[in-house]
Amino acid sequence: MQTEHAEKSPVELAAQDLFDFAVDREDIKAVMASLHPDTQTPRHTIEYELVILKIISVGWSLAYFLEHSPHKMALSEHFWAAIREFSQTVSQTTGLMTGQDIDYFQILKDRLNAYVTAMNEKTEAKEPAVVVGPEFARTCGNKEDVFTIMAGSRLFISTTGSVKAYLEEIRLR
């Protein structure tokens, strides 16, 4: 007996690709490898926050680059549903390992809200990365560390640039 295979729509395929990109850590490893040795922020803190920043940067990019696209809502919904499912797994695993309940999806939402609030407060900034870098360093607990600021800015710029290029390539913009 043959099972029916429901084919995914182009939007669902794009959401899956973007989810896979959001949780891939290769570019985070590159940022960590290039992190200046004089940074005053603990490396584990930077790495943890970079993972969060990448995920929310992909989600933010969808809203930003698809602002006037008819695909914005559907693509965002599929992407964030995949992130919610991923977050549940992270929350459960972390809970088992630490004995403490966490809500990783809520952490992601809180961080996204903090970055969006910072961008809304600094409307004079010519580029979002000018705001994201310092906010990233503040989130890491060391708002004065230029190396932490640069790490956050670098990841944000590369992530949003990759999402923009992908959306242009698949013609969903």
State the order of secondary-structure elements, H for helix, E for strand.
HHHHHHH
The first-to-last residue Cα distance is 41 Å
Percent in strands: under 5%
The helix content is over 70%
Overall structural class, as computed from helix and strand content, comes to mainly alpha
Uncertain segments:
1-5
- Main sheet: strands, sense, barrel: none
Please indicate the count of domains. Answer: 1
Shape: globular
* Secondary structure tally: strands: 0
Average predicted confidence as pLDDT: 92
How large is the radius of gyration?
17 Å
* Helical run tally: 7
Summarize the structure.
The chain is 73% helix and 0% strand. By secondary structure, the chain is mainly α.
